[in-house]
Amino acid sequence: MRVTISRKAHFNAAHRLYRKDWTFEQNDAVFGKCNNPNFHGHNYELIVSVTGEIDPETGYVMDVKFLTDIIKEEVENEFDHKNLNLDVPEFENLNPTAENIVVVIWNKIRKKIKPTLNLEVVLYETPRNFVTYKGV
Question: What is the pLDDT of residues 71-86, one digit of tens each?
Fold first, then answer.
């Protein structure tokens, strides 16, 4: 039996969507108000889901406390109340779009869980705009 467990989390962060190799006008045409040179912020909501076989000894797919600790360490501590462009090394040369953020989060969490478990990350940038990444 494969079962999915999920954990919700959140973080607040600022970012600016732009490409360093484009002019301001090009960036403004593509990213609009998200290209604000003074940045803008979101209250991100995150759902991390892990799918796998139930361990017959524990009854767990994965201890949710362990998943909670991973999210805290890899996401909340690293992204919360940060400027993604300036404070998070992964975005030094990567545009912090919701799509790129969810992939970065997935990669950080993936390293910490068993390879036999499937991982899905859903990132809400706003209550109506969200992205999902399940890996390659």
Answer: 999 999 999 999 999 9
Q: Which residues does the annotation place in the binding site for Zn(2+)?
A: 15, 40, 42
Q: Which two structure tokens, joined as six digits, stand for 63?
A: 């201890």
Q: Both tokens of residue 85?
A: 């462009």
Active site residue 10: no
Domain regions of the chain by residue span: 2-133
Quick check: pTM over 0.85?
Answer: yes
User: 3-state SS of 74-116?
Assistant: HHHHHHCCEEHHHHCHHHCCCCCCHHHHHHHHHHHHHCCCCCC
**Choice among 10, 53, 73, 81 that is catalytic:** 81
For the structural domain made of 2-133, what CATH number should be given? 3.30.479.10
